Every structure is written in structure tokens, then in C-alpha cells.
Amino acid sequence: MSTRIFGKLYVQVLIGVVAGGLLGFLYPQLGTDLKPLGDVFIRLIKMVFAPVIFAMVVLGIARMESMKELGRVGVRALIYFEVLSTFALLLGLVVVNVFQPGAGMNVDAKALDTHAISNYTAAAAKSGGFIEFLLHMVPTSVVEALAKNDILQILVFATMFGVALSHMGRAAKPVVDVLEAFSNAMFVVVRMVMRIAPIAAFGAIAFTVGKYGLGSLLSLGQLMACMYLTCVAFVFVVLNGIARASGFSLWKFLRYIKDEIFTVLGTSSSESVVPQLMHKLEHLGVSKPVVGLVVPAGVTFNPDGQCIYYTMAAIFIAQATNTPLSLVDQLVIMGVLMVTSKGSAGVTGSGFITLAATLASMGNIPVAGMVLLLGVDRFMSEARAITNTIGNAVGTVAIAKWVGGVDSTRMQRILDGHEVAPLVKPAEESPVPVELNVVGLPGVHKASA
Q: Which residue among 75, 106, 277, 309 has the highest number of C-beta atoms inside a 10 angstrom radius?
């Protein structure tokens, strides 16, 4: 029995997190030196990230029988992303105003040492406004976009390429077959990489605790508590309501993706689980075109945890530095974040850069105040990444339900713990035929009972 338990990936990751925390606390220098363990894992995931996203998006669109269905899925996904991320921003704004974690700190912003955040502010200065964001979406080179793992640019090219294959009809079949085999091979590589996730979690947590120490947690504990409680409330109230409306149990769903959740906890990166999350959602019965479109787009356009953090961090800095903000000022900040948050990626540090860019563009909240967050940002990034991952996964199923692109019977059987037939048959058998559901979305295969 113990062998079965310790053989599960999420248990191994959890053990790695606890062991890493203890090592970082008892031997800070050694813990700091273990940072490369987590960095290597993230690099390995990013190595296959772009190929998987490209193949999944292209295959998803190429298998759609009409561009009308592509627009139907895409428009509804964007509506869902905008509503949820806006609600997350508003929730963070309400909580930070109610509990006021920064009140009473009386920090002089002019006396703060900004050297520690110089890298973030420099990166933020390079990021332009909304027009620059739109221009950045179009890659100057497809190879460069894939090499840099630029999600937006990959999505743009993959969408255009998928549309082209869809228009080609049967003539595109050889290319689709190659991409299908390539995608399957990439997921085998992902499974190989995931075996070192416990070691990566051990090194990442040991580094965090060893470098920043538990003292940094205690000094800004109220902000962290607000952040974590808000994320928990968002998941179990907001996302739970969406899950119920979509016809599935959130708790059972979280149990289904527990390996991915614990991996994100250890690595503090929502990107680290995107490939295997896409594979799991497809196995759950979500249409492959919907998975291929919504999950990659959700990484950029639906960062629920990031949005909660942005408004809480911005107002916390204002409170700590005694910067007066009217209700209108706070709503303007929220409006700016509705745009800037959409460009944030799923890697640790991206949230800090986006926040720096937002504060710099506003001018009324001192950017120097971000120094106050530096010690605990790494700890809060775990809450952000986990919330992002859960929100993206729940959103994908909800959007699939909205457009009729989910096999509800298969999903319920899997969430209830019953074995079901795999979606992909062995190579020597004939390929599984693509079936159409009530709205014409391919990719949902009916499993035998």
C-alpha cells in the first residue's frame, strides 16, 4: 500500500516541497545553491512547450469543419477570459481595501533602495503600451517566436497555419498526420521530464526559503495571508460555481489534476504543466480543438491568480507608502491592469515585471515601493501560479461545455474514478475516426462503458 502511495507523482512532489523547505531553513546557503535543480526542470519543460502548443493549436483548428466554429469557440473563450480576469482584479481590490495590510507601515518611498528591483523596472521600461502589445503579437520570424517560447506569437502563427490546413481539405492530411505523430512524441518527452518534478520542487523550495528566509514571511505575513485566502475563495467560490454550472464537481476535478497542482506548487510556474494538462483535459473528454485553442490562450489571457495579485500589490504599496488614492484612482488602476495583465506569462517574475510597468505608467504610486514585495513575491507566486492553472483548467471545460465540445458521460466516469478506454489507439490499429458533436466540433470520441 505504501509503495502505491509513494509511487504517485503528487506525493513525491509534496515530499520534495517539505524536504526542500526544511533544508532551506536549516542550511540556507546549501538551499540557495540548489536553485539549478528547479531551473533545469523549467528549461526542460520550456524545451517542449513551444512544439506542443504549436502542434495542438494547428491540429485543433485543422480538424474544424468550418471557420464559423473556430470563431464560435474563440469569441466565447475571450468573453470568458475577460469576465473572469476582471472579476479577479475586482476581488483583489475589494480584499486589500477591506483588510488594508499595508496600513500603518509608514514607509518613506524616497529612502528605499531600488537597486534590487532594477532588473524588473528595466524590463518594464522596455514593454510599450497597448499598441506595442498588439504589434508584438505578430512575429517577425516564426523561428524566433518558437525559439523564444513567445505564446502570443506562436498562437497567431499556429492559428493562421491551422486555418490554411483546414481550407486545404484532404490535401492537408499528410501534414496533419505528421503533426499528430509529432504531438504524441512530444507528450512522451513530457512524461519523461515530469519524472524529475519532485527533485525540481525540492531544489526550488530549498532556494526560496534559503535565500529569503522565514523572516520575510513574518514581516509581510498579513499581505500573504490576504493573497492566499483570496485565491482560495476565488477557487472554491467562483470557480466552484462555474464548475457546478458546467455539470461537474470541482473537488473531483482537482483530484484529477492533483499531479499538475503539486508540480506548480513546487516549481511556481503554471507553464510547467501546460503540456500534460492539455493531454489530461483531452483524455477527460474535452474536444481536442477546444483544448488546443483555449489552454494556450488561457495562459496569457486568463491569469486569474496574477490579476488578484496585481490589484492587491498595487494598493498595498500605496497603503504602505501613505499614497492617497481615491476610488476613481483605484478604478483607473484596475482598468489599466485589465490590459497589461493580458500580456503576463506563466513564469516566475513575469508578474513583478507587469506590475512595475503598470505602476510606472500610472505615476501616482511609487515604483520604488515594489522593494517591499521582493522578499515575499516568490512565495506569493506559488498561489498565483496554482490559481492560474486551476482557473485555466476549469475555464477550458466550461467553454467546452458552452460550445458543446465535451463528452459529459466520459468526463463523469473519469472524475468518478472509473476506467475508460483511451482516446488514442495503438499505432498498429486503424486511427480513431473523428466524430462530430451537436455543434459540429470534432475531437470528442465516445468511450465504451
A: 309
5: in domain? no
Is residue 444 domain-resident?
no
In a domain, 315, yes or no: yes
- CA angle centred on 393, ends 92 and 180, rounded to 5°: 145
End-to-end CA distance of the chain: 28
* CB burial of residue 381 (10 Å; 0-12, 13-18, 19+): buried
Report pLDDT for 111.
56
Please name the amino acid found at residue 194. M
- How many CA atoms, within 13 angstroms, populate the side-chain half-sphere of residue 8? 14
CB-facing half-sphere around the CA of 395: CA atoms within 13 A: 30
Residue 446 confidence (pLDDT): 37
Pairwise CA distance, residues 112 & 368, whole Å = 6
Whether residue 362 is predicted with pLDDT greater than 80 in this model: the reply is no
Q: How far is CA 422 from CA 249, 416, 447, 448, in A?
A: 22, 16, 8, 10
Q: In this structure, is residue 171 part of a structural domain? A: yes
Q: Stretch 420-446: mean pLDDT, rounded?
A: 43
Instruction: Say which CATH number the domain at 242 has.
Output: 1.10.3860.10
| Residues 6 or more apart whose Cβ sits within 8 Å of residue 400 | 286, 287, 290, 291, 294, 406
Q: Say what the pLDDT of residue 217 is.
A: 53
Nearest Cα neighbor of 228 from 108, 383, 69 is 383
Which is nearest to 17 in space by CA: 185, 163, 198, 243?
A: 198
Half-sphere exposure for 432 (CA within 13 Å, toward CB): 16
| Pairwise CA distance, residues 79 & 342, whole Å | 13
* pTM (two decimals): 0.71
d(CA 269, CA 347): 5
Average pLDDT, the chain: 78
In tens, the pLDDT along 129-149 reads 556 667 777 888 888 888 877
* CA-to-CA separations, 158 to 256, 304, 441, in angstroms, rounded: 29, 25, 19
Rg (CA), the chain: 22
Instruction: Specify the pLDDT at position 295.
Output: 87
Separation between Cα atoms, residue 303 and residue 12, nearest integer Å: 27
For range 356-375, the mean pLDDT: 73
Listed residue (155, 131, 132, 129) closest to 142, CA to CA: 155
Only one residue has cell 490546413, namely 165
Give the pLDDT of residue 110. Answer: 63
Range of the domain at 308: 10-65+80-415
Based on the structure, what is the number of domains in the chain?
1
Q: What pLDDT digit, counting tens, does each position of 302-336 carry?
A: 888 889 998 998 898 888 888 888 888 888 888 87
